[in-house]
Amino acid sequence: MATVRTRRFRRVKLVAAQGAAVAVAAVFLIIGVAGFAPGLTTRTELLQWYGHHPNGPGAQLFGLFDVSVAHNLLHLGFGVAGLVLARTFRRARFYLIGGGLFYLALWLYGSLSERPREILPLNGADNWLHLGGGRVMEILGLTLAASRVPTGADGEVLIPE
Asked: Does 26 have pLDDT greater than 90?
């Protein structure tokens, strides 16, 4: 008689804020890598280390968002930071709220500065993305703050403290 072998998986005990931090970090890592990928990034031969291309639009992710090496490295750094900080509830919340504030400040810089493109190649699409991403991170960090002990639909504790 054949025995049925069950495979036991190690359960990852992440609370909601930590899961959100991992998800946001994964998005940043994907965007950072995509910024270097030919095909996803148009005109990669015009990719600058920082700033914008002097003769009009340079490299653009999906033909819409201006990118540079520094801009892509910033996204990759935010992704790595998110994975590192998602290890604890408090640090995950700090990542979401602090990162959200950073991206809202980047939106203000891109929208209000006379010459924002000298450091990072920011265009209108980048500014809208930074505003939306910053707000989403803020909302996740603030609304998931009370979710330290995950509960089910009927309020039962899913992961005991």
From this structure: yes
